[in-house]
Amino acid sequence: MKRLMSYLLLLLLLSGCAKETTAVPNKTEVKERIHIGFSMDTLEEERWLRDRDLFKESAERLGAKVTIMAASGDDALQIVQAEQLIQLGVDVLVVVPHNAEATAAIVAKAHDAGIKVMSYDRLIKNADLDLYVSFDNEKVGEMQAEAITKLVPKGKYVYIGGAETDNNAHLFKKGVFNVLQPLIEKGDITVVYDQWTKNWLPSNAFENMRSAIEANNREIDAVIAANDATAGSATKVLAAYGLLGEIPVAGQDAELAAVRRIVEGTQTMTVYKPINILAEAAAELAVKMARDEDVGADRKVNNGKIQVPSVLLSPIAVDQENVVETVIADGFHDYDDVFGD
Ligand code: GAL
């Protein structure tokens, strides 16, 4: 009798367990797996490939699924791709806007579908944006100008700006002129050339730099370029005019080619932005947004419509003195890639 009772008990237990393992998870359990849509402007520059991979890795480590689309600098395509991500039913949309103004439409469409939007690295203007995660981009410009004015306190400056459609390009430039303006007013520095670079294209930056040299009879003393891709074009033009290594050049992004130029002395400095920290922070915050959890943003940035809750990380100035302690130590670049042949 006792054995029969214990056998029945076992049967009962097993049937309970069996139910446990094969139960079809209900709708909310499935929904636990957060689905993030990542709408990128371009994968042209070295950094965006890194952002894409690091963000995906970080988000997947947090259990989220990520769908990524890149619009190759095409505004209309970026909006269509964002609509596709919305239709896919993403829980949160992360956007690197090509055009700060045009992408406001994406925020409106996402909100109509009950989806929150984070702008990644670049700000979306004039929209009810939910979160902005980036670096202190004005600081980037200040670091560039501080490094170059130390070497060239007086003289003729060329400013190769970024894409006018990119809010960051305006912040970088504001930072540069925060430092240059007092010296301009004192008459020590003259900015003899100052142009945006359409779509951040190196070929456009090359044309800008060539016009700058030609328009000033090759008499220039310093170049500040908004990123390393445009700085690379500036050094190519300087080489063509036999001025390579003689004119200090500032860049941004710590691209491998730029760090090698710094080591060999044909570029003075770059501004390193630890993208792994940005991507990890953004992935964590995106998951929180999807779960309607408090993101704890400690800053506010005015995007022309609202004070956007923001997280701004610190950039790092890199020159010949601290290449090893910064980009090598962080594993951003390998020692041999930078110092090797
Ligand atoms: C900026 C970004 C820079 C730079 C540039 C070109 O918005 O902050 O790191 O690479 O875009 O894509």
Automatic annotation (TrEMBL):
<dbReference type="GO" id="GO:0015753">
    <property type="term" value="P:D-xylose transmembrane transport"/>
</dbReference>
<dbReference type="InterPro" id="IPR013456">
    <property type="entry name" value="XylF"/>
</dbReference>
<protein>
    <submittedName>
        <fullName>D-xylose ABC transporter substrate-binding protein</fullName>
    </submittedName>
</protein>
<dbReference type="Pfam" id="PF13407">
    <property type="entry name" value="Peripla_BP_4"/>
</dbReference>
<feature type="signal peptide">
    <location>
        <begin position="1"/>
        <end position="23"/>
    </location>
</feature>
<dbReference type="InterPro" id="IPR050555">
    <property type="entry name" value="Bact_Solute-Bind_Prot2"/>
</dbReference>
<feature type="domain" description="Periplasmic binding protein">
    <location>
        <begin position="36"/>
        <end position="292"/>
    </location>
</feature>
<dbReference type="InterPro" id="IPR025997">
    <property type="entry name" value="SBP_2_dom"/>
</dbReference>
<dbReference type="InterPro" id="IPR028082">
    <property type="entry name" value="Peripla_BP_I"/>
</dbReference>
<dbReference type="GO" id="GO:0030288">
    <property type="term" value="C:outer membrane-bounded periplasmic space"/>
</dbReference>
<dbReference type="GO" id="GO:0048029">
    <property type="term" value="F:monosaccharide binding"/>
</dbReference>
<keyword id="KW-0732">Signal</keyword>
